[in-house]
Amino acid sequence: MNALFQFKDTGGLLLLLAVVSAVLAAVWKLRLKKINLRFRNYTNQDIMAVLSVTALYAAVSLYRLGSTVFPVTTWQPSTAGQDVVFELTGDTRFDRLVLLYGEGDNNALEAGYQIGLSGLAVYGSQDQSQWDLIWSPDAGQIYEYMMMECNLDYRYLRLSSVDPHNTITEFAVKAAGKDEYLPLAVAEDAYADSRYPAVLMIDEQDKLLIDPLFTDEAYFDEVYHVRNAWEIANGQYMYATVHPLLGTNIMALFIRLFGLSPFVWRLPGALCGIFMIPLFYAIVHLLFSSTYISFFASCFLAGDFMHLTTSRIGTLEPFSMITILWMVLEMLKYCHMDHFEEPFDRQLKQLFKAGLAMSVAIAVKWTACYSAVGLALLLFTRFFLWYRTWKASRGHTGPYARSVQKQFPAMFWKTAAWCFVFFIFLPIAVYWLAYLPDHISRSGWSIGTVWEQTLYMYRYHSTLEATHPFQSSWYHWVLDLRPIWYYFHTSPDEITYSISCFSHPLLAWGGLFCFLMTVSGWIGEKDVRAWEILVLILTAILPWALLVGRCTFAYHYYPTSVFLVLAIAWAVNMVLEESPGWKLFFHAVLVVYFLIFLLYLPATAGHGAPLPWIRALELLSGWRFG
Fold first, then answer.
1. CATH superfamily of 82-207
2. How far apart are CA 145 and CA 70, in angstroms?
3. Which of 85, 124, 132, 304 could form a disulfide with 188 if both were Cys (CB 3.0 to 4.6 A apart)?
């Protein structure tokens, strides 16, 4: 499996895309007759359109997602001040020391966590009588390689651990001038018979890389979310977490099923990014009932830098975004019903789906609350339209008018009562139940422990005063001025690997223009679809502009940028309705859009490229990729 996702050059991706395209062409030639796919009011063209965009995006998203090989067995001290001695059984000359640490057994402690490096020292000796201090590693980051370049010759290496909370997954010594690790053996370990003997530090040398990339280790905020997911998967008392844990539980399920590795901890987020394409297609199709507009908008989402980058990193954003889209789709389905013709029980069923989706989204990440306000506004808009219809029906005696006059009062109050259940009680229940698999307290799960954790998260976010070199504000996101830089590495063969998160410039800048067109459409034409799109955009961005004063980053724009594509869809639909001849122009826009997307892959997805190529992509002063 690993080889499938570890192509060595960009040509591998292009070849993969060509193969996927050929398969899609073959399927299209069958015209789906043998497949017999049907989805409500989708035509065969709809099925082929969404299948094509999703499959091509999936090929790009899964390409070099991560390695399936990663060291996992971890040593931890049996007592404070424990020493372990290793012997180099062959050559004794080395030019690099390597440490990699994961998390240990938190349940074995009465307090604290078995994680990290503190007060660790590495000594060298030829005869075990005189020891020289050669390395005092800093805290480092969990699941990331720590290296010290050197030029030394020692037969024995002693690791001295002062802190009993230390953990080491693998310790290695690179042969001087060679791309290989020297064989190590345990010479002294006073706790060799314990549950965590020193041999655990050298039992997976074959899984270590000489020149690891982002595919082989954690990067950016993965060090927090993967750690929590590992704790859940292994039933461990949890290190402090600052977000709800439903999304982390999904990541933990994958780790539980397939083991710990970069590919596994990124796979569920990547799958969310893939499945967002048909979900988004469904939203656009619901709004515009057009195959072309739905295809166009889905292509814009699939080709967005931020969508690709954010769904390929093991954080909560992909889980949050797909659940936000789910709740938006369910609410729009409800809003686009004919409520005076549709059976009331069917309306309640749809409203329940919207409430359930919103409940899940909030249990993944609190930022879904912003879009939940948008759902409330959409619902209130529907109530207002009911009232207008009821008011206009008075004085009329037709069957529909009589039906409206009869149904409105009871339907309004019943719906309002059920909304309390679906949008207040249900989210609280789902939020609390989502913590059942998690050991956030040594006393076990309870309503009280979840409440305490919730207060802790609120205090953390409301009082956070941290700064970051790549922090940015909402107006930077709108104008696409300041990406956040996740990863950078230059290999020995002078190939640069860079990952930055920001919006595709055509989406950001073109979307801003289309947003203004959508505002005009709402004011001038009273288009309800334009109002719905504006509600989704503004409720996603305004809280960051008006309420949040702490350190923020470009990826916080992710929900807004996705909804901005709806404004682009509205503008394209309006133009084509008035002037169908513009379709050829929009074909050209898609071609240019995807060429830019491919051109920027070395800066957004870590595809290796010479540094001059990376530098040439820095079109604005705030765009820094290398």
1. Galactose-binding domain-like (2.60.120.260)
2. 11
3. 85
Among 161-165, 470-474, 601-605, the range with the most confident prediction by mean pLDDT is 601-605
pTM for the predicted model, two decimal places = 0.92
CA torsion through residues 208, 211, 215, 219, sign: positive
Least confident of 98-102, 328-332, 410-414, 424-428: 410-414
CA distances from 203 to 185, 187, 305, 373 (A): 10, 14, 39, 52
Rounded to whole angstroms, how far apart are CA atoms 54 and 274?
A: 6
Averaged pLDDT, 336-354: 91
pLDDT in tens, 124-170: 999 999 999 999 998 889 999 999 999 999 999 999 988 889 999 99
Cα-flanking dihedrals φ and ψ of residue 399, to 5°?
-60, -40
Contact 284, 294 (CB under 8 A): yes
Q: Rounded to an integer, what distance in angstroms lies between the CA atom of residue 112 and that of residue 433?
A: 26
Phi, psi of 451 (to 5 degrees): -65, -45
| H-state helical runs in 239-343 | 246-258, 262-288, 291-302, 305-311, 317-335
282: helix, strand or coil:
helix
d(CA 309, CA 321): 13
- Rama region for 119: left / alpha / beta (φ>0; ψ in -120 to 50; rest): left
Burial annotation 291-315 (CB, 10 A radius, 16+ → b, else e): bbbbbbbbbbbbbbbbbbbbbbbbb
| pLDDT for res 18 | 67
